[in-house]
Amino acid sequence: MRTSLQQRFRAWIAAPAYPWATGGFLTVGAVAELIAFPGSVTTTIGVLVSSASLMWRRSFPPVAVLTVAAGLLGFAGDVNLYVSIMASGLIGCYTLGRKRVLHPALTVAGAALGALCVNLVHINTWSRMNLPVPALWEKGSLSLFAESFLLTVVIFGAVMMGDAVRSREETRQERNLAQAQLIAMERQQAAEAERAAIARELHDIVSHSVSMIAVQAESATYTTPGLTPEARDGFQQIAGTARSSMAELRRLLGVLRTPQGQGDTALTAPQPTLDHLAELVEQHRAVGGEAELRITGERVSLPAAWELSAYRITQEALTNARKHAPGARTVVEIDYGADRLLMLRIHDDGPGPGFGPGSGAGHGLTGMRERAALVGGRLSAGAGPDGGFLVEAELPWGTR
Questions:
Q1: From CA 222, how far away is CA 126, in angstroms rounded?
Q2: I need a surface site. Which of 97, 124, 132, 359 has the fewest CB within 10 A?
């Protein structure tokens, strides 16, 4: 119950309407006090300005200087201390310390000087009122400055309270920031641990299986009697493809094991580029596919990300052609556009989308679109204008 009330109180103080409500309330109270106990013009102006200025203390904290100054001016105009001046002055000093408009030492020193001036004005007023006022430096004259001393102590307390609240909130914010950084670090470490676990699983399962494929395919050429030359070459192609896949898996495992920001050290194997497309097409032909590579435009050296994305898109398109349109003729067209736009077009004359074996929604097309979007390009895939399946990608690689 107590915690709930504290939360509601803090929420009310933090509300945007709080300074307007308190400032308006003190202004109304000041008007009522002036009606009940009229003062001089100076006192009236000081009381009203000191109270009303509090309404802007949050949107413009330096206005608190005016609040305190007007309160001291209003107190100097009358020997009686109005309650509204006392309340607005304390809030103004608290605001100066809370928002640190000035250094607390300067704030207290300035307010103490103002209190001393008010005290001197009051001493002069007491003299004109024929009150017993001892001359300065006479016995008992120090008691005349008890007023300024008391005001300075009160001002000091209000300013220090505001500064203490400010320091506590800054400490809380720093602690929250440190906690957020610690949580982010722990999450990063957990992600790196998960990456390492994935790498171990891939190494134990996939790498082992692929290595067995390579070994068995290569050994089959020696242990299987009566193999035709074509079958022997097929086994060798399987073993070569398995070894290439192993090299790629090792590279990916190195990336997974390397913490973020240090991934470049794991790339010990060279990245495939567009210069390797001819080999990719030959591999497609070696497993029974019919493919043709057409290149237009002058070969330019593209950034590594563009070269890798174009290669992977072509590789995935050829893989899909073998999977969904076995035996179909595939044409791979590469156009190095003069307007810094790399065009990819992979088209086969198969049955088209939705008719090939195993056709369905997989991750291949999504991966190709993501690779194109990674370099600021776009990719479309679907039925070709003359049938079959068509993949088109536009990869801008420079300022157009």
A1: 123
A2: 132
Radius of gyration of the chain (CA): 42
Distance CA 180, CA 46 (A): 47
Tell me how many degrees the CA angle 183-186-190 measures, rounded to the nearest 5. Answer: 135
In a domain, 331, yes or no: yes
Quote the number of domains for the chain.
1
pLDDT in tens, 324-361: 888 889 999 999 877 788 999 999 988 887 654 444 44
389 phi and psi, to 5 degrees?
A: -120, 135
Tokens of 177: 């920031």
pLDDT of residue 358: 44
Domain assignment of residue 323, given as a range: 274-354+361-396
CATH of the domain at 329: 3.30.565.10
Q: Which residues contact 326 (CB under 8 A, 6 or more apart)?
A: 288, 289, 356, 357
**C-alpha angle with apex 132: 129 to 138, nearest 5 degrees?**
130
Structural domain includes residue 334: yes
For the question of whether the overall pTM of this predicted structure is more than 0.85, the answer is no
CB neighbours of 397 closer than 8 A, spacing ≥ 6? 302, 303, 306, 340, 341, 342, 375
Assess if residue 42 is contained within a domain: no
Q: What is the pLDDT of residue 211?
A: 66
Mean pLDDT of 217-241: 79
* Distance from C-alpha of 397 to C-alpha of 338, rounded to nearest angstrom: 11
Instruction: List beta partners, residue 292.
Output: 331
Distance CA 196, CA 201 (A): 9
Q: What are phi and psi of 90, to 5 degrees?
A: -65, -40
Nearest-angstrom CA–CA distance, 219 and 73 = 103
For residues 56 and 92, is the Cβ–Cβ distance under 8 A? no
- Signed CA dihedral, 185, 191, 194, 196: sign only: negative
Element (H, E) at 294: strand 290-296
**262 located within any domain:** no
Cα gap 47→30, rounded to integer Å: 7
